[in-house]
Amino acid sequence: MMQLEDVVVSGVTEFVRIYIILECFKIFLNVHSLRRNIISCVITYIITLLSYLVFHNVLVNLIVTVAGIIFLSGSFRGKFQKKLLLSIMLYAIMFVIDLLASFLLYEAPDSNNYDIVSSFISVLFFYIVVIGIKNAFKGKGRIDLSGQWYLLLYSALLSIAVLYVVYKDMVVSRIAVLTISIIILSFNLMLYIFYMSMLDRFLYERENLELKQQMNIYERQIRSDIENNRKIRTIKHDMKHHIREINDLLMKDKIQQAKDYLHQISDDIINAQNIYNTGNEAFDGILNFYAEKYMNKSLELAVSVAIPENLEINIYDVNIILGNLLDNALENALDNSKVSMDIKYTAGMIHISMSNLYDGSINKIDGHIISKKDDKDNHGYGLDSIKRIVDKYDGSMIKSYENGQFEVDIIIYLE
What we know:
Number of helices: 12
Mean pLDDT: 79
Distance between the termini: 60 Å
Order of helices and strands: HEHHEHHHHHHHEHEEEEHEE
Low-confidence stretches: 139-146, 374-381
Strand order of the largest sheet: 3-4-5-9-8
Number of strands: 9
């Protein structure tokens, strides 16, 4: 007759194993529906658990396990070939991990706690592998906080060490070993769930920040459009007076004065229009916002833009790159000098180059260029922020500062 401890071990470890398999599938596939996902989990759990408890046959357990993993993959979207390959790979990983757990405990095969500890250590090793896979394939999308996954790894390894020590102590009863194993496994599972919830919260807050940044850009663009429309309406309202004045000048043969008057009207009309109209609202909003700031500081901003209107790039990232580049030049460029920027899209990549004249002095701490501003809160992290975004797109950034000329050259890949 099967002991209660064996039922508990199989029940707990199979539950956690199915949860880990689901987490691994989520790395590569999208969930079809939550309801379908839950039903698949329940069916797989019941069938595999009954198989392990009723049949004590390696071949039967192998077939049921593989079939269960494939059945679980059915609750995810994707081609069957891809899901089948992932299922077989997962089983192969589990098989190797079981061998590793057995090898780790090989020194004391006579212990009556062997089956309990081996099962829980096997699950913890599987947990570690999936954490590593998740970090490798999802790390790019989970920047900043994702580096803390080492905490999960450390916790799992420490748990394996604790179980190993408990296993080596022949005095500990099976009930005690089972209790300790369940507590340790539960702790790791709760730590993982807490970590993922914090990660999701971080991403949610970051998305809100991106949305706020996007709204700020749109607000700048709308404000600029409103002001320009007001200027245009003023010009249109005064047009009859302008026509009368030009007509009077022409009647008096004051040709040059009439030309000057027309030139002044033309300048007013040009000033009432947005300087940059690429069709891409993100780029237009940022560039037109800074164009006014540069004019107020008597700096010439010459920007050449050649990008498609429907360019798919995160507006938050665009604002960090262009905003920091233009802020740095605005802070450091020589008065009455020219700041040049070239932005173009070619074959799935954006090339941004910028240059400006500066006074020849560069402040650096630990190899990082820092701001010349007096406030201690702004330590010149602009270039570091740009580099972080560039790395996100697997791009490159080269900066040079020689002979009073500061240049930055950036390439980011969108495809």
